Amino acid sequence: MYGIFINAIKEYTIQNEGYSVWQQVCESAGLEDDFFINSEFYPDPILENILKALVHFSGKSTADLYYHIGYWWALHSVPRLYLGKLEKGVPAYRQFILDFPLFINRLSLIYEKLTLTQFHSVKVSEEAIDFFHTPYRLKEPRFSEGVLRGFATLFAVPDQSFTLHLLDRSGDSFHYRIQFI
């Protein structure tokens, strides 16, 4: 796992749970140092230990924590990584969701050892997009839901403008339908 993802979880924790919780997480996860270089690759157990400790110290269920991390990641990390202009409104959100798999694939050009989370989106109609997500690590549908709802907030799309349904969960893959109203 790259430092950029661990740093995002660190930032989420400090901002939402407090620095003292982050320190407890680091101690519980056995981290001697909490400095991660974004472009450096770290063994996956580091992330796993951080997440286990964060569930414990945050008081949130795993599903709720993953939702909040996904939502936060969409609002805070994606704008720093996305080179396009983030226009507001449903049309821009719809196009971003359709183009998001390309954005993720571009990250593999920057981070050569990146084991990509798989995203695929299909325009079903003018009112619907099917979004498929096969996560590499955070294998919880609530993470994916948090990401998609975070994108909606990022694009200033009110909750009443769309519905989000988990249509299928096959193993570690999640199939959502985003229905625009």
Protein described:
This protein has 181 residues and is of the alpha+beta class. The protein has helices spanning 3-16, 19-29, 44-58, 62-76, 78-81, 90-110, 141-154; strands spanning 118-125, 128-134, 162-170, 173-180. It folds into two domains: 3-59; 85-180, H-NOX domain (Alpha-Beta Complex), CATH 3.90.1520. The protein contains seven helices and four strands. The chain has a four-stranded antiparallel β-sheet with strand order 1-2-4-3, with helices on one face. β3 (162-170) and β4 form a beta hairpin. The protein is globular. The N and C termini lie far apart (38 Å). The relative contact order is 0.14. InterPro entries: H-NOX_domain_sf (IPR038158), Heme_NO-bd (IPR011644), NO_sig/Golgi_transp_ligand-bd (IPR024096). GO terms for molecular function: heme binding. It comes from Flavobacterium fontis.
